[in-house]
């Protein structure tokens, strides 16, 4: 469902619609269908798609430290295969990560970071 919204927004923008009107229309549609909680995810997807130039962007691997690439080689290879990336990825050291790895290829992402895992654990514990 989220992908359908992203595709619709991208199509409207490609046809020359004003971004403000597209976002306002998206908000109204999401509110009508009680999907407003999807708005941030949809906007991130649209932004990622626009930044990557569709799917022409190569694979990227985000790690907390340079030596994490060696430690997480098997995990990185598994996620690259899942995303269908055949080329060797660009490795980026991200200060936003505390451990683990985030793998991106095209407009798809696998987040196997400690930050995500800890955030999910916190949400489960506090919302239980």
Shape: globular
Average predicted confidence as pLDDT? 88
Structural class: alpha+beta
Strand order of the largest sheet: 2-1-3-4
Strand content: 15-25%
Whole-number total of structural domains: 2
> Topology as H/E string?
HHHEHHEEEH
Poorly predicted sequence stretches spanning 5 or more consecutive residues: none
Radius of gyration based on Cα positions: 17 Å
Largest sheet: 4 strands, mixed
Structure description:
It is a single chain. The protein has 128 residues and is of the alpha+beta class. It folds into 2 domains: 2-52; 60-123, no CATH class. Helix content is 54%, strand content 16%. The chain has helices at residues 2-14, 19-32, 39-52, 68-71, 73-83, 114-126; strands spanning 60-63, 90-93, 100-105, 108-113.
